[in-house]
Design brief:
With 195 residues, the protein is of the alpha+beta class. The chain has helices spanning 44-49, 53-68, 107-112, 120-137, 174-177, 179-194, and strands at 11-12, 16-20, 27-32, 79-85, 88-94, 150-153, 159-162.
Length: 195
């Protein structure tokens, strides 16, 4: 078990506390801190994994991209597995950093700091379109894609990378087996993001 008792989180959110891995440089440990919502009818995955079921979806999508050998996988933060820690279960992922060596800034932060009339905003949108095109080409499903789940990473020469939200969270994931459903869902997400 990895001891994180004396470690200070690099970031906190309502779902995670994020730590540097105490042994492996360039690896983050994301410890789930939220509690599962109580529901009258639970899906099988909720019974089996509880509040860790998103990790199962993310691992499945990452493995599917590896299996297909799609080169677009470079647009995803690396997945290194799971770990038991003194603060609870953790998922181990590649650390994406900015030019200062700190955790990479999100695309949401970049948009929020760029005035609406600044031409840089159009360049940011174009970079986002390129990322979405790569994900579509690789048929990589990012069910929970948002500007806060995309960062600009030095590890990818300053390109945009998805760090969270892989996989489909619906009961019947038609996007996995039907190309038309994948394209339809991709267009919906694209329109929402580019608004």
């Amino acid at each position: 078990m990895l001891d994180l008792n004396d470690a200070h989180p690099l970031q906190k959110s309502q779902n995670y506390e994020i730590f540097d891995h105490p042994v492996h440089a360039g690896v983050l440990l994301k410890v789930r801190v939220d509690k599962p919502k109580k529901r009258l009818f639970k899906r099988y995955s909720q019974y089996r994994y509880g509040n860790l079921r998103q990790w199962s979806r993310e691992a499945n999508e990452y493995l599917a991209a590896l299996h297909r050998g799609c080169p677009e996988i470079w647009r995803l933060a690396g997945f290194f597995g799971y770990a038991a820690t003194s603060r609870g279960p953790a998922i181990a992922v590649e650390k994406m950093t900015g030019p200062d060596g700190q955790m990479a800034r999100t695309l949401a932060q970049e948009f929020n700091e760029t005035p609406k009339d600044d031409p840089k905003r159009d360049a940011l949108k174009q970079e986002l379109i390129e990322l979405l095109d790569d994900l579509d080409r690789g048929r990589i499903i990012v069910g929970d894609i948002g500007l806060q789940n995309i960062v600009r990473a030095q590890e990818r020469d300053g390109k945009l990378v998805v760090i969270d939200g892989l996989g489909e969270r619906v009961l019947l994931p038609l996007t996995l087996i039907n190309a038309q459903a994948f394209r339809f869902q991709s267009m919906r997400r694209r329109k929402r993001l580019l608004r």
